């Protein structure tokens, strides 16, 4: 990265480059702005409490993130030339792009939880922390600036987190395998590959193509910002547990099947490095649990070509439809909500009330999500799998299948179901710290 393209870490919100702590606690607060002046006053009050990516303190220290939807930018009174400089997909919103995202059927916005897709979510304020005490303290700091303020309304709140030993709603260790970003100041972990150009994730810097991506105007608004995609999934735990029991006879077989669906054992240990037996110590070691390639497994005998992990990051897999994998990488800041995974949940009443906020950041989040949804999640052609869909977040159709390559004959599992149903979604703009101040001080 050229010297004049040095990442201005002191102006980039911490959540862009700071890894989520483990264990973690937090809250998402969604606000509606009914009065532009009140909204700008909120941003003025919050801005000093929003950490920058340069403030790398002890692991687990709390931080606040502030993001704004297009409807929120309108409500805050941005000038028309700035509003029109945002990409069309961002201005239309995730619900408005449901056709391009293949969010149909059970995932259609008609089934989303209010207020997602309604246009009422203007601001997202999120608190992340590694300790319960710091979470409550930091959330109270944020609350003092919005609670009871005329012209603002809280339209949704969601506590989230995972304590030591907790797994995601379907029983897996998650948030493994983040991309390395050039200039971030964070040393790459083994297996991350070469650092990806910062412009793929942060506006104002060269991307993999050599130049920066288009950014909102004026420059102070766009530079050092990024886009956020948020998708609320409700996990069907009982449906998933029944599926494992119907297609595997023993606990060991069920755990292997669960690993084949994702590409990792539930502990986080990758099948590439632990193909036959789980290795929890490996799964918990960030210096080893992502340090592999698929060079020795071209046909998917260890990690099925259609598994969730291999779809979302094919690495060196030879694909039927060629693409540059680095152009579709995302920063993930996903959070789980509701009760922890229950392996004994089997009744339909256990489906609902827990799930995952899939949160990702990218300088072209809208284009990237539409590509992933169309080509890698809800289609199998890029891996020569025909109509097969992602077994974790894919929207399954009647009679859907999942293929496990093995010798001498592949195993094809029929009647795989939708295990994570989409129940909300929004696109946000995550401004730089200077952009937050610029918006807050609009005349």
Layout of SSEs?
Layout: H1 14-17, E1 24-33, H2 36-46, E2 63-68, H3 70-75, H4 80-83, H5 88-92, E3 123-129, H6 132-146, E4 152-162, H7 219-222, E5 226-235, H8 237-247, H9 251-262, H10 280-283, H11 308-312, E6 331-332, E7 335-337, E8 355-362, H12 365-377, E9 401-404, E10 411-414, E11 420-430, H13 433-440
Antiparallel strand pairs: 1-3, 1-4, 2-3, 5-8, 5-11, 6-8, 7-8, 9-10
Helix pairs in contact: 2-13
Helix content: 10-25%
CA-based shape = globular
The biggest beta sheet reads: 5 strands, antiparallel
Distance from first to last alpha carbon: 37 Å
Q: How many strands?
A: 11
Runs in which pLDDT lies below 50 for 5 or more consecutive residues are: none
Mean pLDDT: 93
SSE ordering = HEHEHHHEHEHEHHHHEEEHEEEH
Main structural class: alpha+beta
Proportion of strand residues: 15-25%
Number of helices: 13
User: Total domains, how many?
Assistant: 2
Q: Indicate the radius of gyration in whole angstroms.
A: 21 Å
GO molecular function, one term: metal ion binding
Organism: Solirubrobacter ginsenosidimutans
Cofactor: heme b
InterPro entries: Dimeric_a/b-barrel, Dyp_peroxidase
Characterization of this structure:
There is one protein chain. This protein is of the alpha+beta class and 443 residues long. It folds into two domains: 3-233 and 428-440, no CATH class; 236-425, no CATH class. The protein has 13 helices and eleven strands. The strands form three sheets. Strands 5, 6, 7, 8 and 11 form a five-stranded antiparallel sheet that branches. A hairpin with a 6-residue loop joins β9 (401-404) and β10. The longest helix has 15 residues, at 132-146. Belongs to the DyP-type peroxidase family. It comes from Solirubrobacter ginsenosidimutans. InterPro entries: Dimeric_a/b-barrel, Dyp_peroxidase. Its cofactor is heme b.
């Amino acid at each position: 990265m050229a010297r004049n393209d040095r990442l201005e870490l002191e102006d980039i919100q911490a959540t862009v480059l700071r890894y989520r702590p483990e264990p973690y606690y937090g809250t998402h607060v969604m606000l509606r702005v009914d009065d532009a002046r009140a909204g700008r006053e909120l941003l003025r009050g919050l801005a000093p409490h929003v950490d920058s990516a340069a403030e790398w303190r002890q692991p687990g220290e709390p931080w606040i993130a502030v993001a704004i939807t297009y409807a929120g930018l309108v409500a805050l009174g941005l000038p028309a030339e700035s509003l029109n400089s945002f990409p069309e997909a961002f201005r239309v919103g995730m619900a408005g792009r449901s056709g391009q995202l293949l969010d149909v059927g059970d995932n259609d916005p008609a089934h989303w939880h209010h207020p997602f897709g309604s246009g009422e979510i203007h601001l997202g304020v999120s608190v992340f922390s590694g300790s319960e005490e710091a979470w409550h303290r930091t959330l109270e700091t944020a609350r003092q600036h919005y609670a009871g303020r005329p012209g603002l309304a809280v339209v949704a709140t969601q506590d989230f987190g995972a304590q030591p030993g907790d797994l995601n709603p379907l029983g897996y260790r998650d948030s493994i395998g983040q991309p390395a970003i050039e200039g971030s100041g964070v040393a790459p972990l083994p297996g991350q590959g070469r650092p990806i150009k910062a412009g793929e994730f942060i506006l104002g810097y060269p991307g993999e193509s050599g130049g920066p991506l288009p950014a909102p105007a004026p420059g102070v608004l766009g530079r050092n910002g990024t886009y956020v995609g948020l998708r609320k999934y409700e996990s069907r735990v009982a449906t998933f547990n029944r599926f494992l029991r119907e297609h595997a006879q023993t606990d060991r077989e069920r755990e292997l099947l669960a690993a084949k669906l994702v590409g990792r054992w539930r502990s986080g240990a990758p099948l590439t490095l632990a193909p036959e037996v789980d290795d929890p110590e490996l799964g918990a070691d960030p210096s080893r649990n992502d340090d592999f390639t698929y060079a020795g497994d071209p046909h998917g005998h260890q990690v099925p070509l259609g598994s969730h992990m291999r779809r979302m990051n094919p690495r060196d897999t030879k694909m039927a439809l060629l693409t540059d994998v680095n152009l579709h990488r995302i920063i993930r800041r996903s959070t789980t909500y509701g009760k922890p995974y229950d392996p004994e949940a089997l009744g339909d009443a256990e489906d609902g009330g827990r799930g995952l906020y899939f949160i990702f950041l990218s300088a072209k989040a809208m284009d990237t999500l539409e590509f992933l949804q169309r080509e890698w999640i809800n289609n199998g052609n890029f891996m020569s799998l025909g109509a097969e869909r992602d077994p974790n977040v894919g929207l399954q159709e009647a009679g859907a299948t999942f293929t496990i390559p093995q010798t001498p004959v592949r195993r094809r599992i029929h009647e795989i179901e939708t295990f994570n149903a989409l129940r909300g979604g929004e696109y946000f703009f995550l401004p730089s710290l200077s952009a937050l101040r610029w918006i807050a001080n609009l005349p």
